[in-house]
Amino acid sequence: MMTEYKSKMNYWLALPISYPICLSVYGMIKGEWLGALAFVFLIGSILIVSYFTKYSVDGATLTVKTMAGNRKIDIRSIRKIEKTNSIVSTRALSLNRIWIHYNKYDEIVVSPKERQDFIDRLLAINPTIEIKV
């Protein structure tokens, strides 16, 4: 049975982005279109990719789905899950993230809305996962 989890988004994180967008709009009003449009396109792309991020568990496979592509992870290869508030390397606009370590050196940062349910589902498949949240 497949279970899908949406990515958590902290909308207040979009506030720092809104200032440059306002500057871009101001630039467009002043006739400086190229830089303003490029910036709006870049920020819009980031927000769209973040919004459509989902995580699904199907059998023993965790799939991280984004508009940029999908990553499939064998849940039996997950070694550790730990909490992280790092703003580096993320698949969502949230500071409530977990860092999944799998295989020998692979890792991914995710932020499912239902974090505890997500972790419990992974533990049901692989009870040897070390949890540090």
Q: How can the largest sheet be summarized? A: 4 strands, antiparallel
Corresponding CATH superfamily: Pleckstrin-homology domain (PH domain)/Phosphotyrosine-binding domain (PTB)
Structural class: alpha+beta
- Which fold name is given in CATH as the topology? PH-domain like
Give me the strand/helix succession.
Answer: EHHEEEEEEHE
Mean pLDDT across the residues is: 85
Report the CATH architecture. Roll
Radius of gyration based on Cα positions = 18 Å
In which order are the strands of the major sheet placed?
Answer: 1-2-3-4
Poorly predicted ranges: none
The level 1 CATH classification is Mainly Beta
Query: Helix proportion of residues, in percent?
Result: 25-40%
Shape: elongated
Give the number of domains: 1
Distance between the termini: 26 Å
Number of strands: 8
Quick rundown:
The protein has 133 residues and is of the alpha+beta class. Helix content is 34%, strand content 32%.
Can you offer a commentary on this structure?
- By secondary structure, the protein is of the alpha+beta class.
- The chain has a single domain (1-125), classed as Roll (PH-domain like), CATH 2.30.29.30.
- The protein contains three helices and eight strands.
- It has helices at residues 15-29, 33-51, 115-125, and strands at 2-6, 54-58, 61-66, 69-74, 78-84, 97-102, 106-110, 130-132.
- The strands form two sheets. Strands 1-2-3-4 form a four-stranded antiparallel beta sheet, covered by helices on one side.
- Strand 2 (54-58) and strand 3 (61-66) form a beta hairpin.
- Helix 1 (15-29) runs antiparallel to helix 2.
- The longest helix has 19 residues, at 33-51.
- The radius of gyration is 18 Å and the shape is elongated.
- The two termini are 26 Å apart.
- The mean pLDDT is 85.
